[in-house]
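Teaching soon. Invent one.


***
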Amino acid sequence: MTATLTSPPRRGAARNPGGTSPWERARLRPPLPPRPSALPTIVGRNGPVVALHQRDVIAPGGIADQAVVDGDRMVAARDLAGDQWWLPAAAVWVDAEAETRPDHPRPAGLATGRDRVAAITAGLSDRLGWEAVLEFDRGRELGLAPGVNAPERLVVLDGRVGHEVPTVVTLGDDIVRWGAGATWSQALDRAVFGHDAVNASVDELSQVSERLGRDGLTIATVDLATPLLARAGVFRTSVQLMLATPWDGGGTRVR
């Protein structure tokens, strides 16, 4: 007895006799266009345009002595007036210096909001408060915040480190929170209820920016909104602190 080996029938052949199977049709389809990038432009430090617009930016945890970030890759950022600058990408992402596209943004100063001002204000509140907590953990003595009505069972510390923007660190039985604002009451409300709990405004952000300017600092933002967030009308930004320069006059006006 002789057995004849034949190939098994193709899946779907009975439903599609004489034609290609659904799986083959899918394989033959042209590829989908690339997904829009969720990252801003990243370039090498030594490009001709970048060299003219590079700025020094405060390193994470470096506000007390205005330590700056170094790195070979630069990312596009904008100040409050909308002018573009190039900052070391290592200020924005933990993995910025890897050969691939960075995928791990630093959490301090990263915030979302329904408008640009709200996102920047929340991110700035988080960054300034986080810097204060870090200094406190390093052993720096923080006095009591002036003129605040501390909630019961909370100690409210003055978190102004390297600047004069009202910033608080609240200590409870088992929790530490922080916040900043144009007034001590706004800073405390953000620390207790969340960085987005207080309505942000252009006036408040401009006041905070002007105070930072007197301390040699200028606000910059890096847009980290994904296409999905952008379509939903949500702003996502990483707030950075640049060292101020003589040409930052317009950088404190929010546009």
Notes: The helical segments are 22-28, 48-52, 116-137, 184-193, 202-214, 227-231. The CA atoms of residues 81 and 251 lie 5 Å apart. The chain has six helices and nine strands.
